Amino acid sequence: MAESPPECQHERAGTITAVRIAIVTDFYYPSLGGITEHVDGQARSLTELGHEVTVVTGKLLQPAKVQDDALTVPEPTFEIARMGTALRLYMPKWGNGAETTHTVGLRLGRRVGAFFRSRGLDVVHVHAPYNPPFPAWAIEHTPHDALSVATFHSVFPQTLGMDIEAEWIRPAIERLDGRICVSEACIGSLTPYFPYAYDVIPNGIDTGHFSPDAEPVRELLGDHQNIVFIGRFDPRNGVDTMIHAHELLFAERGPAVRLIVVGDGPLRPLYDRMISSRARPYVHFAGRLNRSRPNY
Question: How far apart are the C-alpha atoms of 114 and 134, rounded to whole Å?
Fold first, then answer.
């Protein structure tokens, strides 16, 4: 199923020759997260430059509840092609212990390859290629006359799960024409499994959306100070560290300091139990938010 933009152009954009680009990702709206926003921003920016962009992703089964889902999300300016079924999974002993999404489907690799050929692609850009099996299939079925590039977003500890997975997907990673990491830390964790050359391109920020001019949440205003955490409830993101830090500050300053937690995930009950009874009235869980995050 493809969702088409108002129009696609294939022409020169200033001094840049327009090309046909497929961005392949397990993570895209309605799934929220950093990769989703990275992909959306990349697709919009490339389209503005005059390139013909298609985001290839799965159809998310049972999207997570979002607290501000009534807010308007900008319409895509590019094509979205949905193939396969995207499943939300949480496997704490696998990879980096994050809640993740995997796209699966009958003969999905062949279907993706046929789609690539029908579009006459110049570039296939895969996000999170270590996330099996969809990204690896996309790399494997990239046409021989197209460039294949991947962006690596995550830091991984050395685990048995990664030892097994790396053996499976290493041929796809080796085939890539370009490998991008969002930080040096990513390179350090990847090289034991995928010892290749990487270029670092840090994540960007949509300063038009994440602006200090955003209207603050009214109920959070007052004489107190707010500490705000925004992120998924993955162990690596340190929600527990923030809760412990607030407990220390609360013991010293009392109600003058409040903790605002924006996000959600399977570990919510665990983190909730970490909050002491005395500090609980001054800790606010806002839940999963999308467009209203700048207001916090």
Answer: 14
Nearest to 230 by CA among 292, 279, 151: 292
The CATH classification number of 218-295 equals 3.40.50.2000
Nearest to 242 by CA among 222, 263, 221, 256: 263
134's tokens: 């969809």
> How many residues make up the chain in this entry?
296
If we measure between CA atoms, which residue out of 178, 179, 183 comes closest to residue 200?
183
pLDDT for the residue numbered 95: 61
Give the whole-angstrom CA distance, residue 47 versus residue 161.
37
Pairwise CA distance, residues 236 & 287, whole Å: 18
245, two tokens: 């830090």
CA distance 194 to 212: 40
Cα 125 from Cα 138, distance rounded (Å): 9
Instruction: Measure the CA–CA gap between 65 and 248, rounded to whole angstroms.
Output: 32
- The pLDDT tens digits of the residues spanning 187-203 come to 998 999 999 999 999 99
Q: For residue 80, which phi and psi values (nearest 5 degrees)?
A: -120, 120
- The strand pairing partners of 103, in sequence order, are 86
Please give the model's pTM, rounded to 2 decimal places.
Answer: 0.87
Cα distance between the two ends of the chain: 36
Greater model confidence, 156 or 221: 221
CATH assignment of 2-200, given 3.10.580.10, 3.40.190.120, 3.40.50.2000, 3.40.50.460? 3.40.50.2000
